[in-house]
């Protein structure tokens, strides 16, 4: 093919492109001007303009030309449908319906012959005896039940042992019954459970709160430790009075108020007492409803206290946040008396700083004790 023929062939367009080329220079506005109103309406119904600015009612080609019949009445529509359904006759069934009789073929899953043979082979394979060799067979045959228990524990076959048997095998101990006699039959089924050991309930706190408050206010020398843990019916006003009375007491060394439903109402009097008291060494307000702001207030009061060696503030309401935790860690770094500190940190940096500060204080106490001994 010559170059002239190739150029002529490349200039031509075929198929749909050739038809579109004919309408390239047509003026659409001139054509629309010649259409009648009915033809324009028909054209509008057939076209769907892709314009998001138009409302859906204008874009939808379906137009309802019926006159409205009135407001929608659901009950009237339901009555009409029910009446219409009763008036129409049922379709004639090719097979008459009978109660309790299934019509048509019942579905039954079919198994291929190869799948059935494969299942039988696997079943027979599992039923075959495992050949361990003469030496192992003889060892297992002559092994006692105690040896089998130890072997199961070493191999990690926990399903063959209960908890007591497994732990005894790890400690290389023999199980005994309640009378202290060795249990010959140690290998038991896992279905037989170990009865739980019943432990005596912890005695309730029988501290007389009113009497303790009176002694605290009177600075009674016999009251050096006050334990109010787990007494949940103490009024908040009484808790506030106890915190206020602690400030003027010079004999109290330990105050425990864990799980007493204390909240932020005690933080202000507690902080004032921490600033005044010079004998308290242990303070425990764990498992209460003190907020993060209340914890920060207590730690601020610790700046002016140099006697408290144990401070428990864990398990309170809500989260502290990184800012509060950082401030607590900074206060501990500047404190030289706290040796035990109970608080859960959510961030690594404040947790590490607080831990290092407490460890530093313990190291200083250890060095001082060594110097005194020498």
Word description of this protein:
This protein is mainly α and 374 residues long. 46% of the residues lie in helices and 4% in strands. The chain has a five-stranded parallel beta sheet, with no helix packed on it. Strand 4, helix 15 and strand 5 form a beta-alpha-beta unit. Helix 11 packs parallel to helix 12. The longest helix has 26 residues. The protein is extended and about 115 Å long. It starts with a helix and ends with a helix.
Q: Which helices and strands appear, and what pairs or packs with what?
A:
Elements: H1 3-11, H2 16-22, H3 28-34, H4 37-46, H5 56-59, H6 74-87, H7 113-127, H8 134-142, H9 145-155, H10 163-170, H11 209-217, E1 225-227, H12 236-247, E2 254-256, H13 267-276, E3 282-284, H14 292-301, E4 310-312, H15 322-333, E5 340-342, H16 348-373
Parallel strand pairs: 1-2, 2-3, 3-4, 4-5
């Amino acid at each position: 093919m010559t170059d002239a023929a190739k150029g002529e062939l490349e200039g031509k367009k075929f198929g749909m492109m050739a038809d579109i080329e004919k309408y390239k220079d047509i003026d659409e506005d001139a054509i629309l001007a010649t259409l009648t109103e009915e033809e324009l309406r028909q054209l509008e119904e057939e076209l769907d303009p892709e314009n998001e600015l138009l409302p859906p009612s204008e874009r939808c080609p379906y137009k309802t030309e019926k006159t409205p019949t009135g407001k929608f009445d659901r009950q009237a529509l339901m009555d009409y449908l029910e009446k219409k359904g009763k008036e129409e006759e049922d379709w004639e069934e090719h097979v008459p319906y009978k109660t309790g009789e299934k019509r048509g073929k019942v579905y039954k899953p079919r198994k291929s012959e190869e799948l059935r043979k494969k299942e039988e082979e696997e079943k027979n394979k599992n039923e075959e005896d495992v050949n361990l060799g003469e030496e192992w067979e003889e060892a297992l045959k002559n092994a006692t039940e105690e040896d089998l228990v130890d072997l199961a524990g070493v191999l990690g076959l926990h399903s063959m042992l209960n908890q007591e048997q497994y732990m005894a095998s790890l400690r290389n101990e023999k199980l005994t019954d309640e009378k202290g006699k060795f249990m010959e039959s140690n290998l038991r089924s896992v279905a037989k459970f170990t009865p739980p050991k019943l432990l005596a309930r912890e005695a309730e706190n029988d501290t007389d709160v009113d009497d303790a408050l009176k002694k605290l206010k009177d600075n009674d020398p016999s009251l050096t430790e006050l334990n109010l843990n787990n007494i949940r019916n103490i009024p908040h006003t009484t808790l506030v009075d106890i915190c206020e009375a602690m400030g003027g007491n010079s004999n109290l060394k330990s105050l425990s108020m864990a799980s007493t439903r204390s909240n932020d109402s005690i933080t202000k009097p507690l902080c004032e007492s921490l600033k005044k008291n010079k004998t308290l060494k242990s303070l425990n307000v764990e498992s209460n409803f003190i907020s993060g702001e209340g914890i920060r207030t207590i730690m601020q009061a610790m700046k002016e206290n140099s006697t408290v060696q144990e401070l428990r503030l864990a398990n309170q309401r809500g989260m502290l946040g990184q800012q509060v935790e950082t401030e607590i860690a900074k206060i501990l770094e500047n404190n030289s008396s706290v040796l035990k500190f109970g608080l859960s940190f959510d961030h690594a940096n404040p947790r590490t700083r607080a831990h290092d500060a407490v460890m530093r204080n313990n190291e200083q106490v250890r060095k001082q004790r060594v110097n005194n001994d020498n």
